[in-house]
Amino acid sequence: MPTPQPLDESFYLQPTAAAARALLGCWLVVRHDAGWVGGRIVEAEAYTQDDPASHSYRGRTERNAAMFGPPATAYVYLIYGVHECFNAVCQPEGVGEAVLIRALEPILGLETMFQRRGGVHWTQLCRGPGNLCRALGITRALNGESLITGRVQIWRGEPVPDAQVGVSPRIGISQATERLWRFYVRDHRCVSRGVSASEARPADGRGAGQ
Known about the structure:
Layout: H1 16-23, E1 27-32, E2 35-47, E3 74-79, E4 83-89, E5 98-108, H2 110-117, H3 129-136, E6 152-155, E7 165-168, E8 182-185, E9 201-202
Antiparallel strand pairs: 1-2, 1-6, 2-5, 2-8, 3-4, 4-5, 7-8, 7-9
């Protein structure tokens, strides 16, 4: 188990796409009665307030209010009436930007994850945002909690070198598809899906989707 060292607020004040890239290799963990459950982040996507694909594009609502909260806030929402999705809020309070965590390499609390996810292969436990939340026990009850002191936290991890990082368009959106704001660990078995050669780009370390 890594030494618990939550990322501080300053981490989340960098450009949101840069934060998404920097979150690769960090730990997403949830505290339960039996201990911590979680793993290393291997895939993430950035969403900004000027982004037509973002929940915040048309302003603050009751549903997306946590996205406009302080940096290092958990934003958890439901899609298709079934699947929860977990996001880390970035930028100062009042700016609606966040990073969607799409996949983890599951490490802590594997037995608990298998109980929640059934008889899937370990690489599928946290592959995709809905599966990730189910495996870790992330629900909307955690929406708005601090990622520094709350039940769900993000800890510092081992940085992933640029040579091991790919970037691509985000998954499952129909607008702003030209923005290469999906960041993932190349060839990692827990990443939610591969990309075609025409989509994939090497990471160059500049961040901010440039």
